[in-house]
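Handout, section 4.2: multi-component inputs.
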Amino acid sequence: MTSKRFVLTFPPAATGEPITYNLIKKYDIMVNIVRADVSPGKIGHLVMEMTAPAKVLKEGMQYIKQQNVECEPIEKKIHYRSDLCIHCGACSAVCFAGALTMGRETAELSFDPEKCVVCELCLKSCPLNLFSIDID
Amino acid sequence: MSEKRSIEEINEKIRNGKAVVLTAEQVSAMGKEMTPAEITRRVDVVTTATFGPMCSSGAFINFGHTTPPMRMEKITLNNVPAYGGIAAVDAYIGATETAMPHDTYGGAHVIEDLIAGKDVLLQASAKGTDCYPRTEIKTLIDKSSINEFIMFNPRNAYQNYNVAVNSTSKLKFTYMGTLLPAFGNANFSTSGELSPLLNDPELRTIGIGTRIFFGGTTGYVAWNGTQFNTGKPLNEHGIPVGNAATLALISDAKHMSTQFIKAAYFEKYGVTMFVGIGIPVPVLDEDMARRLSIRNSQIETNIIDYGSGNFEILGQTDYESLFSGEISLNGKKIRTAPLSSVKVARGIADHLKKEITEGRFLLTQPVALFPVTTGLNSLNIRL
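Output:
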């Protein structure tokens, strides 16, 4: 089984297709919605974790894309300029999801996008403004 | 008889490449196994360091004269106001000053840009005098075009600092970082057992004239810092609990590096500057060895409510707990996070260790020691 987080971007004119229902029912993918921001007539976003054998996950992703919905792994949507990081730890203060943590021995920041819930608090908390998210 | 050595004896060893230099973290680890007497016999110098946000920072700049000359009065650098109420082409650019309305760019960024060798836009106006007739100027400057570029930070290297929590139900944005509601996190900002003034808590070896590592180059302790307070209560290990002594530091910013001077913006607070400082402490005797072997578990500080606005002391904790990622306050576990980079501080301590070991950095006897104070004045409103 593989667990991965994805960001789904819905076009303003959604098809009305029950995508998550079909992912569960037809593909037997375990779906956990982390964040949802979907309003009629606007671009919508769904952050969700999908758990299934790797092959099934791939099929699920293809199905989502066939519905004219963009589906990207979360790490492609969240950008962290690790090359400029000073490892102060200010972002880890707000990351209640545990995606940003300080190594006790190394005193280095590590970022695990698979734990990110896209709360966006790190964007405001990094004193060097090193985080950005491609979700409007 | 207990072992003692003078700074001159230590410098002689440094010159001969025979000094034993360790970082404060290494000596703290040593202190678990060895007595202060043994450490005194084995170690000559201990390097301490910190790299944290220090708002009370800035730089004096002399722009050079134009023809005809000008006494610059209202001055901006990349639209950030600089203080020009001193002689003709001198100015002071403070780290926290901002370019309105873009308050995410400020004096610290101007300083970092200049250190990086970038062009900075200088604009100034003046009323014009018989001796200084020019009234307007708009030009680009960089660090090679200006005369002096002297970083002078009135308050750096705080000896210990508060831990910030937020008791309220709202998210708070502070100079201690973002504080989650209902004690959702606890933020702290020192390098603990690696921090300079925690390794010489009585300031026996650090005083006016002490040579240090400052922002990537050699600097000096100019004076005691502002809000200098030696009157804080001490714990059983002789460490002041809460923010106490401070340092005023000076150096040539032209030789600094953007690796150790970093502009920063704290959401809804403003601009500040991460400053890298390293101070070598001589192991003069057993008392100094005992001080230098201080460990995070022995350094305590106050937990303060930064959310409610009255800065109430809610409890105390130690740096071992703070660095572990979790502290306990009134039976509740609170996740912790640093704001000061131990990683960069370690790099500074290692660098300074190498410089001293290889004979390029000698220690100094302070020209004068700092005063002993009894506390701080508050500002009473008299009108």
